[in-house]
């Protein structure tokens, strides 16, 4: 056992001897009281062996590699696997206990919980590039509330889709999503202190977001994705739709047909969608990528390798040393705001070309790749034209060849 496991063993034994409480044990081991109770239950049932990590030891593949390289044994992996199974050192996959995913009842009211997800698929069957479909479906009724095709599952695309959904139906009580980086900060060092841009938007609109631990937990939207990958593809094929723009313009018709066939009535007829309030009126400014920036002594701020110069007014001079908010809209336009007031600015310098090996944010990856592709195409055209020029002989060279051909008969006569 490791030192960590031995320390847990001694602390759990002290709990059993009633020397310390579970709360004190949690503080000693820096874990929660719930985990203390779980460890204590396993310790009482299985003894000290329950505290050993389940992944400790060698599997058949790794054991075969070490026995071959270190000790020179000439045996197959499957033979070693059968020996380890016979000695109870390895459990076959088909005999392992599978985690049960118990069903849950759907929500009672329409708008109480909306499941959202992105489905990456070849939606146009090769007629266009692969893309992503953003799906919004009500948990209580199974009603499709919003569909939108986009190139990738990005924050800006979810901003556009969520805004369109809210303007049509109102604000739901909660969204139910997976742990995609759009919805949740997955870096352990930042989980307690930060939220994503999408999470900030929902917080301003007073909408909760719940994260599913597994795909089975958000089964309604997962099943809807499978149905859409069958029906939606065939419908677009019959309609002759070959692009994202055409598909997004036609999707409301499909949503209406889909809901007529598959949507059900909620157990409670109450609609929990909330209308937009006066504080929600500025949806255009809410659905933006917002980051704080510090104003320098020269009344400038820097964002995305651009220097923005604030208008030198007496009111703006008071902002020196303070943090103001930089807003980037989904259409690429930007704004600078402080305490609800938008500030006039001008751009001092902007790098037009990306340098090699620089770090590119995920939300800009599509534009960067398009820029790189355009550069490669231009370079290929230049190379082709230069190779064509090199392959064509000059007029002077052609003249020399002609003169040599005329000289050959004379030389033959002289000989």
Automatic annotation (TrEMBL):
Organism domain of life = Bacteria
Coiled-coil annotation: which residues?
none
UniProt feature, compositional bias: Basic residues? 384-398
Annotated region described as Disordered, given as residue ranges? 376-399
Query: What positions does the domain Integrase catalytic occupy?
Result: 99-283
Q: What is this protein called?
A: ISNCY family transposase
Which species?
Acinetobacter towneri
